[in-house]
């Protein structure tokens, strides 16, 4: 009996290795070769990342250069508001889901300097960084709580709050299918106090994060830096035609350097495994890049949703047919107590193929405007997954909302999703797909933050225009091909032109679409010393007139 008990830890470790060695599902034709042309990449990091990049230590910068990546990086003190100082897991919403996100991302996408010592032989090809690597340092492996804790908006460094943070920033990544975001997991600690939690969280990132969010784009991926450093037998790599994620049976660092910083050997092992995997992620992302193709033909009919209907199909408004059925069409509303101006009209010949909805606006600071359509009878849209449309703008960085109105006319509930127009939308039509659960109750109403329910009756919708605090919002936006996403088509009706998704679209996996609590500060990861909701958040407004 004693012999059997002594075998239990050994057998458990063997079982862990065997069960974890199952290859990660992959797409046919994965390509581990470098890009054919120079690709700009930037790495957000602190000291561990600096060591990893450095020639003669981790050699990552030089190896990426040899694989046709023009590498830049950030470090302490970098960027607007010295945002580079803040790379703990709870800091990522400040980067990717705050009112300052446009400023930080503009600086990040246009950074071309080095903040670590590594070889660059390639010439800067110009334009923006296309790939963003970001990593928290080793103190972030001291996650409190329990391994299976669900996402939790409260807390600081805990399993539940870490899950919540990554779910929140994924919403921003969904709006930027033109960028490839690579999460680098935090390296392990020598101390095993929180090792089980760290292992569980990183397993969740690799295996469950995107799946639980029904994320169908190929512009987000994870490299398990943590796992690679826990054992010589632990791997996250592309090997023999498939991606391997193999756990070696230990949850603490096997490559320490006298402290928790990974050693040269560990950093070089990570480089060897990561770069080919990055190439695979890059080619997957390129194969999924949204195109700006014009549909061959517009639908000849536009189905009208009936009051209390149990299903919805196809187009909401292609802006080429008659006025939106069951409504008075699109109308502009704005804060009449301010100098705000807004023109909202269907404009001929401005769409991908025909007409488009055109918004020309000058929203005064701390004011608002909407281009809205209200149904004469409420609609039930719950059998589709959400909405999809295309947009382009006159200048990058414009903010606008997609709003849904639910409930009776005298007591509308407003559900909102806020979008920032990327630079690419100035010259191109950008696809946007939103699930019903991406819409949340407006911050100026009761029960703020409540998710829109698919069973809600829809009284109307709008493209809303608000402002950042004390700043105007001025520009032009064109909207085209507003329709339901993943809606079932009636028999004999032609499927609308394929629409690329760039939000959290609940697509079939075999048909990928183009789609504060008190904070506890961490010690810096240096030397050797031990949205507002949804994307930009919603602007707090009062007295917002809708109709």
Structurally, how many domains make up the residues?
Answer: 2
Order of helix and strand elements from N to C terminus:
HEHHEHHEHEHHEHEEHEEEEEEEEEEEE
Principal-axis shape equals elongated
Mean pLDDT, nearest integer? 80
CATH superfamily placement of the largest domain: SGNH hydrolase
CATH class of the largest domain: Alpha Beta
Structural notes for this entry:
By secondary structure, this protein is an alpha+beta fold. It folds into two domains: 254 residues, 3-Layer(aba) Sandwich (Rossmann fold), CATH 3.40.50; 171 residues, Galactose-binding lectin (Jelly Rolls, Sandwich). The strands form four sheets. Strands 8, 10, 11, 13, 16 and 19 form a six-stranded antiparallel β-sheet that branches. It has a six-stranded antiparallel β-sheet with strand order 9-12-18-14-15-17, with no helix packed on it. Helix 6 runs parallel beside helix 7. The radius of gyration is 25 Å and the shape is elongated. It starts with a helix and ends in a 62-residue tail after the last strand. The N terminus and C terminus are likely disordered.
């Amino acid at each position: 009996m004693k012999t059997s008990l002594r075998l239990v830890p050994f057998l458990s470790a063997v079982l862990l290795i065997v069960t974890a060695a199952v290859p990660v599902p992959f797409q046919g034709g994965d390509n581990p070769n470098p890009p054919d042309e120079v690709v700009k990449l930037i790495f957000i990091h602190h000291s561990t990342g600096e060591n990893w990049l450095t020639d003669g230590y981790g050699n990552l910068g030089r190896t990426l250069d040899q694989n046709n990546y023009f590498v830049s990086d950030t470090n302490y003190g970098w960027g607007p508001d010295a945002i580079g100082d803040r790379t703990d897991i709870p800091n990522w919403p400040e980067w990717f889901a705050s009112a300052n996100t446009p400023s930080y991302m503009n600086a990040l996408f246009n950074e071309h300097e080095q903040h670590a010592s590594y070889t660059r032989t390639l010439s800067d090809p110009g334009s923006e960084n296309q790939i963003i690597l970001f990593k928290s340092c080793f103190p972030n492996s001291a996650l409190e709580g329990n391994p299976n804790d669900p996402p939790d908006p409260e807390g600081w460094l805990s399993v539940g709050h870490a899950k919540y943070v990554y779910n929140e920033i994924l919403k921003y990544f969904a709006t930027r299918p033109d960028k490839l975001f690579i999460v680098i997991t935090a390296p392990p600690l020598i101390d095993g106090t929180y090792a089980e939690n760290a292992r569980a969280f990183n397993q969740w990132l690799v295996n469950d994060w995107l799946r639980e969010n029904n994320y169908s784009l190929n512009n987000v991926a994870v490299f398990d830096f943590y796992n690679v450093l826990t054992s010589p037998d632990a791997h996250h790599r592309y090997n023999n035609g498939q991606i391997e994620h193999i756990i070696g049976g230990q949850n603490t660092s096997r490559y320490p350097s006298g402290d928790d910083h990974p050693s040269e050997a560990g950093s070089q092992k990570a480089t060897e495994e990561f770069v080919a995997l990055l190439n695979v992620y890059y080619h997957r992302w390129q194969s999924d890049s949204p195109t700006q193709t014009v549909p061959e033909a517009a639908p000849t009919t536009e189905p009208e949703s009936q009051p209390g209907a149990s299903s919805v199909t196809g187009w909401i408004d292609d802006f080429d047919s008659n006025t939106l059925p069951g409504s008075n069409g699109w109308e502009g509303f704005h804060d009449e107590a301010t100098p705000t101006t807004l023109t909202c009209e269907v404009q001929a010949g401005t769409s991908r193929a025909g007409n488009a909805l055109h918004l020309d606006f000058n929203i005064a600071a701390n004011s608002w405007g909407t281009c809205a359509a209200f149904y004469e009878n409420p609609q039930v849209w719950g059998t589709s997954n959400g909405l999809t449309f295309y947009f382009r703008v006159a200048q990058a960085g414009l903010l606008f909302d997609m709003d849904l109105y639910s409930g009776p006319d005298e007591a509308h509930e407003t559900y909102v999703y806020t979008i920032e127009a990327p630079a690419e939308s100035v010259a191109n039509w950008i696809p946007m797909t939103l699930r019903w659960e991406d819409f949340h109750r407006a911050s100026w109403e009761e029960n703020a933050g409540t998710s829109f329910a698919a069973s809600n009756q829809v009284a109307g919708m709008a493209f809303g225009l608000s402002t950042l605090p004390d700043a105007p919002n001025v520009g032009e936006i064109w909207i085209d091909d507003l329709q339901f996403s993943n809606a079932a088509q009636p028999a004999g009706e032609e499927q609308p032109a394929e629409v690329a998704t760039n939000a959290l679209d609940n697509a079939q996996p075999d048909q990928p679409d183009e789609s504060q609590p008190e904070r506890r500060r961490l010690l810096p990861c240096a030397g050797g010393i031990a949205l507002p909701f949804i994307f930009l958040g919603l602007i707090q407004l009062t007295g917002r007139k809708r109709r």
